[in-house]
Amino acid sequence: MNNRLKVLRAERDWSQAELAVRLDVSRQAVNAIETGKHDPSLPLAFRLARLFDMQIEEIFDDGQ
C-alpha cells in the first residue's frame, strides 16, 4: 500500500521517533509503514488521520 506518511511527517519537521511518540508506537513501526513493509492496523490508520487532520484515503492509497 502506498502512503504519504514520510512527506506529511517531513512537512511538519518531525523525526520518525517524534511521530512514533505521538502515535504510541515504535520508531521501527513508523519506518515499516513509511517504506511499505507493513500496513497499519485500522485503529492506527485512524490515529494517523486524526493526527494529520486528513481522511485515511488522503494518506494511504491501495492502488485501485
C-alpha termini separation: 10 Å
Could you tell me the CATH topology label.
434 Repressor (Amino-terminal Domain)
Residue runs with pLDDT of under 50 for 5 or more positions: none
How many beta-strand elements? Answer: 2
Count of domains: 1
What strand order characterises the main sheet? 1-2
- Beta-strand content: 5-15%
Structural class by helix and strand composition? mainly alpha
DSSP helix count? 5
Oligomer: single chain
Q: How can the largest sheet be summarized?
A: 2 strands, antiparallel
The whole-angstrom Rg is 11 Å
Q: What is the H-and-E element order?
A: EHHHHHE
If classified by CATH, what would the architecture be?
Orthogonal Bundle
Mean residue pLDDT: 95
- Give the overall form: globular
Q: Briefly, what CATH class?
A: Mainly Alpha
Describe the structure using short key phrases.
mainly alpha; 434 Repressor (Amino-terminal Domain)
Give your account of this protein's structure.
- The protein is mainly alpha-helical and 64 residues long.
- The protein has one domain: lambda repressor-like DNA-binding domains (434 Repressor (Amino-terminal Domain)).
- The chain is 59% helix and 6% strand.
- It has 5 helices and 2 strands.
- Strands 1-2 form a two-stranded antiparallel ribbon.
- The radius of gyration is 11 Å and the shape is globular.
- The model has no long low-confidence stretch (mean pLDDT 95).
Short description:
It is built from five helices and two strands.
Map the helices and strands.
Layout: E1 2-3, H1 5-11, H2 16-23, H3 27-34, H4 42-52, H5 56-59, E2 60-61
Helix pairs in contact: 2-3
